[in-house]
UniProtKB/TrEMBL annotation:
Keywords: ATP-binding, Nucleotide-binding, Transport. One of its GO terms (cellular component) is plasma membrane. It holds the Pfam family ABC_tran. GO terms for biological process: peptide transport; transmembrane transport. This is ATP-binding cassette domain-containing protein. One of its GO terms (molecular function) is ATP binding. It is a peripheral membrane protein. Residues 5-254 form the ABC transporter domain. PROSITE patterns: ABC_TRANSPORTER_1, ABC_TRANSPORTER_2. It is found in: Cell inner membrane. Its main location: membrane. Belongs to the ABC transporter superfamily.
Amino acid sequence: MSALLEAEGLVKRFPVRDALGRRAGAVHAVDGVSLGVAQGEVLGIVGESGCGKSTLGRLLLNLITPDAGTVRFGGDDLTRLSASALRARRRDMQLIFQDPFASLDPRMTVEQAVAEPLRLHRIVPRAQERDRVAELLSRVGLRPELARRWPHEFSGGQRQRIAIARALASQPKLIIGDEPVSALDVSVQAQVVNLLSDLIRDLSLTFVLISHDLGVVRHVADRVAVMYLGRIVEQGPAEDVLSAPKHPYTRALLAAVPGHGAKAPPIEGDVPSPIAPPPGCRFHTRCPFAVERCRTDQPTLGDGLHRVACHLADSLPPPTPRPDRLAGGDRLRRLQSFFRAPGPLPGAQP
Ligand SMILES: Nc1ncnc2c1ncn2[C@@H]1O[C@H](COP(=O)(O)OP(=O)(O)OP(=O)(O)O)[C@@H](O)[C@H]1O
C-alpha cells in the first residue's frame, strides 16, 4: 500500500525557560515518530492529554518545523519545500480545529469564511463563488440561506459544520481533524462524527483523526496509532489495535473506556515529565509487565505502514474479560454464587 503521507523519525522539542527567562531544558513533545497514511485511509491518533497528538498533527502539515525527521506528502518532502511551493501544497492539506468558536473569524460572514479558500486557491471563478459556497453548506447539512449570517449566530455544532465546509472548499486530498468533536455537546458529537464519516466515504478523503476519545476513533478509523509521552507505542489496523491490543498501555486505555470488554492491570504512578522522558519503551516505568529489555528497546517496528507493538506482545497474558461483559451463562453463574441460589434465578432462561 503506497502512502499519501509519510513521516519518518519526527522530533519536536519546545524550550523550557526558568523564572529568569534562561533556557532550562526542553519538552520532548514528539520524539521519533514514524507513520504512514495511505490514500483514502483514516488514521486515528489516540492518547492522553499532553502526549503530543496536536504537535504531531501540526508537524504532519508542516505548520511547525520539526527539529529532525521528514514528512513526505504525495512524494514531496514538505520540510524542504520553498515557502511558495508549500503555500501551493496547502490547498491539498487542511486542518479542522477542536474549538469551532475560535476557528472562525467573527468579522467574516459564513459566505466570506467559506469563500476565502476558494479565492485563495482560485478554485472557481468569482461569479461561481456564491453557488459553490451554497453547495458546500448543503454538503455539511446547513441551509444555503444561512450564508449571510455571522458565526456568533450559530451553535457549536453548526460552527463546526461551517469549519468543515471551509476545509472542504479547496478540495483537499488530506484533512487532519484535531479533536474535531471534543468541544461539542455529547448529543451533537455523534451528528458531527457521522457527517465526517459520510464525507470521508463519499469524497474518498484521506483523514487523520486526532482524538482522546476511543469511541470516536473506533467509529471512523481504518488504522490506529497510540501515543504515549511523545512516541507511538502501538500502531496497526483499527480492528486489531482496538479489539486485541498488543501493548499494555493500549490495554489500559481501552480498559478505562466504560463498557469495553477487557480488564487490564491499573496503571500505577504518574506520567513522567516530558522534559526527561524515560529511555526505551516510554511506558516501562509504569508497565506491570516491564522487563529489563523494555528500559532500552523501543516497541518494535513491523511491516506495512509502520506497524508498532510491544516487543513482549506474544508473551503478555491475555486480558481478562470484565464481569459485566461475561457471556450470559457465566453472568448467571456469577449471580447465582453471589446470591447463593441453588437453582436458576427467577425469570432466567433455563
Ligand atoms: N508551544 C509549546 N511550548 C512549550 N511546550 C509545548 C508547546 N506545545 C506543546 N507543548 C508541550 O508539549 C507536550 C505535547 O503537547 P500537545 O499539545 O501536542 O499534546 P496533546 O496530546 O495534543 O494534548 P491535548 O490533548 O491536551 O492538546 C505537552 O507537554 C505540552 O505542554
